[in-house]
Every structure is written in C-alpha cells, then in structure tokens.
Amino acid sequence: MKRPMLVAALVVSLSAPRAADAFCGFYINGAGGEMFNNATQVVLMRQGTRTVLSMQNNYQGPPQDFAMVIPVPVVLKEADVKTLPKDVFGKVDTMGAPRLVEYWEQDPCTVESEDDRRFPMSAPESMSVADSASAPGNYGVKIEAKFTVGEYDIVILSATESTGLDRYLRDQKYQIPKDAEKLLRPYVDAGSKFFVAKVNPKKVRFENGQAMLSPLRFHYDSDEFSLPIRLGLANSNGTQDLIVSILSPQQRYEVANYKNVTIPTNLDVKDEVRTRFGEFYAALFDRTVQQNPGAVVTEYAWDATTCDPCPGPQLDGNDFLTLGSDVIGGDGYSGFVLTRLHARYGKDGAPNDLVFKQAPPIVGGREERDGSGVLEQRSRKDSVNNFQGRYAIRHAWTGTIACQNPVRGVWGGPPPGVNIAEGPMAAKDLAFAPRGNVQLPNLVAQDVPEIAVKRGVPLPGGAGFNNKPQGCGCQSSDSGGLLVAAGGLMWLLVYLRPAFGGAARPGSPGLARRRPRSRRAR
C-alpha cells in the first residue's frame, strides 16, 4: 500500500557561475558545509480524506535560486497549490500557545451571588501543466508537471529508484547530504511524487532588505493522515522542535504511533515567571518529554473561534478559507477544533513518521474548581474540547477582612490603582527560548507530580533536561547556534555552492499581553 506523505522537504539552492549570495537561515560552512533549516510553521486542515497543508518558512537574507523538494502522494496540479498571506500563521500560533495569566484574590467581604461565584465572567476576547517527460539521463526520473505559483517555479517529479533520484539531484548540481539516498528510499518505494518548488529571485518581495518568501499551501486526498519527519533528519544537528497545528471540524487529533501526553497545566507559578515565561515553559516542556521519552505533547485542543483567556485575536471565517476550508467540503466556516501537538527530537529520536488519529475531546487548564474548591488538574475526557496550557501568577488578598463570613479564593482582575501590563501572555517561538538557565522547581508554586517535580527541590542537571550544547535547536540566540523550530525536522537542506559561513540570529520568544477587563478569573 502506498504511504501518503504530508511534507518532508529537501531545501536546495541552485547556484550560478556568478558570486553566490547565500540564502541565510541555516549554516553554510564553506564548500561542502552542512546546512540547517530555520523556523517553519505547519498548519494542517483535515476533513474526510482530504488534507490541506500550509507552511511558512522563516529564512533570512538575500535569496539566490532556491528550491524545496517535498514528497507528496499524488501529482499536484496548479489548482492544488497557492501562496498565502503570512498573518494567519501568527494568529494560529498565538491561539494555541501556552498562556500566562495573572490573578488577584477579590475582597473576601464583597457580597456577590452564589451564581456569580460559581460561574465567574470570562475576560472579553480580548505556467500551465506540462506534458509528462523523462528527465535527461538514465535516472528513472520523470517530470510529471510544471507550473508557476507566485515566486515559485514548480516541477513535479516521479522516480523509480532512490539511487536514480539521488544521482539526478547531484547531477543537477544540488549538493545533498551524503546519506540522502537512504532517506529518500522509503518515499520512492512508497510511490511518492516529489514537489520541487524553486524560487525565482526576481519575483521575491523584500522588506528592509530581507527576502520575504510567500507561505505555500497545497491539498490532496489520502486515506492516511501522516507527516513524514525522517527525511529532514539528514540535516539535524542536535535537538529540533516540531510544532504542528491541526484544524478539523469537531475533531481533535493525536498521534497513532508514538506515546501521547498532555502538558501539565493549571500550575501556579512564581512572580518572576512574568519576565521569563519562555524559559519557564521550555523547562516545563523539556521535563515532560524527559519523563515521557519519545512522546508527542498535546498543548492545546479548543474550538478555534473561541478562547478563554484570549492572548490574541481568534480565528475567523477568512482565516479558515485561507488555510483550506474552501477545498475540504462542508460549510467550512464553523466548528473547527484547533489541536496543537509539540515534539522535540534528536537526530536518532524519531524512527517513524508521524501518523495522526482522531481522539476524543479533552478539557483542562480552566479556572474550574470542584465542590471542595480545588482547581482542576491535568486533562480529562469530556464532551467538548477545552484544553490549554495555562499558568497563573496569583496575588492573595492583603487588605482588611472585617466581615463575619469572608469568602476566600475568588480570583479576578487587579484592585483599583494596580498598574499592570496588558492581558494574558502567549509563549511563542519556544524553540528559540533560552534553555538551561532556570530551575523549574524554583519557579512553580506547587508540586507537579505527573512529571516528578517537587516545589523547591532541585532536579538533577538543572531544570530537568540536558542543558549541554547539542547543536541546532537547543541553545538560545546568544549561543551562536542556529535554532530549528516548528517543523524543522521536515526539511532536508542542500546547496550547490555555499558562499559563506555563519547563521542568522533568531529572536527571543515573543510574549504578547493584553489587559483583562473583567474582575473575574477564567
């Protein structure tokens, strides 16, 4: 049976005799040097057997002729491929990102109805297809289609042997990793086609001297819902993050062939986390993976048009159209569930491609308490998807308590006169977060038994993970190493003629905040 592939890309550069202006965003260490991918965001939309894949690359620097090679299960046509605006990827990332909220205990003597205490108010949201032709030479490689979309000149290839495809790419002056053939082999054997999207530098848009590659979207039909990651391991230079966002009507997803865990949530944290949220969350995530080797972590599963609290704008009908609702059937405008899955792998840590399966709804990470006043912990199955990674800084009431029957533990917005920054924080660009500089037990205000963390008790090796340099993807931007985020595992990078060494300097984690307008916590 053919194994459908979502995306596992070779990123390649085609040089000319002129002086090469290397496409930054990965290492170029002289002739024959290794290349590594920078940040890539992947959003999948799934309905029935149709998959829509949208991806945004974050390469930096002046482009030369540049291409990416992606295994796909079928020959794509021009109508199946389009470029997208970039803004929607930021909205998806913010929507599913872990949140940091800040609550103040309300005046215990404030009189309010039982209903108000039980159901506190939420914060407001805040070239046309060519005839098939054999590629030159005896490679067993065939050109199935050619067309142009935006700044991309696209060719669809088929191959009968991985050795022939390997030789063809090398003879076409692509400098591919020495072990590329064995990684290409399972995709060729499965009957995959190869989507080659070459960039025409004359059509690239620039902002402040930096090339801005358009995000790409394509769709196809396949019974299996999977994401190949092994091909990209050829360019792994250490630990890499893979974040996949999945949109599907009324449906959450998890992986079928790796262990699934949910991120510990509803943790109270120390005040200093306000300025180190990215570091805190990276330590929490790494400890979770350390305690669950090889697991894929669910960080978010919620109706894609709502959130509570909301660190940014919700997704709307236009966003769904951009990401594929125009081609999946149904009304395509409502009922989407956003699932966010996060994995972190070393070069030998992902023996199999990711295969996704439907999963029952879960809840967790809400300001919901049981009859004894205990805040809900962990995740649990329910009839709806309401799960998020949520972390809270809490300020107990310090004023006078002069009433006979004070009600403690009612949380909401700040008291009058307290000057705070704007609203909930979203931890973004997490692969770029500094690692190894914090002790996780010193940042939580409670024990976290599911990952064997006791408040104030140091963990071996620092924050609960190996903080020694492991190459790409495990150091802060100050370390000089290039970080790989959100899909870096899927990209195999090759060059014809690298021009200089060095790496782009990724930014630090972005933390967006908005002022809560309600006095009630959610």
Could you please describe the fold and organization of this structure?
The protein is of the alpha+beta class and 522 residues long. It has one domain. 12% of the residues lie in helices and 28% in strands. The chain has helices spanning 87-96, 114-118, 162-171, 180-189, 277-291, 317-325, 440-443, and strands spanning 9-13, 40-47, 50-57, 66-72, 81-83, 99-105, 133-134, 141-149, 152-159, 193-199, 205-207, 210-212, 216-221, 226-227, 240-249, 252-255, 260-262, 267-268, 296-303, 336-345, 354-359, 362-364, 380-381, 386-388, 390-395, 411-412, 425-427, 491-495, 511-512. The strands form 5 sheets. Strands 2, 3, 5, 13, 15, 17, 19, 20, 22, 23 and 24 form an 11-stranded mixed beta sheet that branches. The longest helix has 15 residues, at 277-291. The radius of gyration is 24 Å and the shape is elongated.
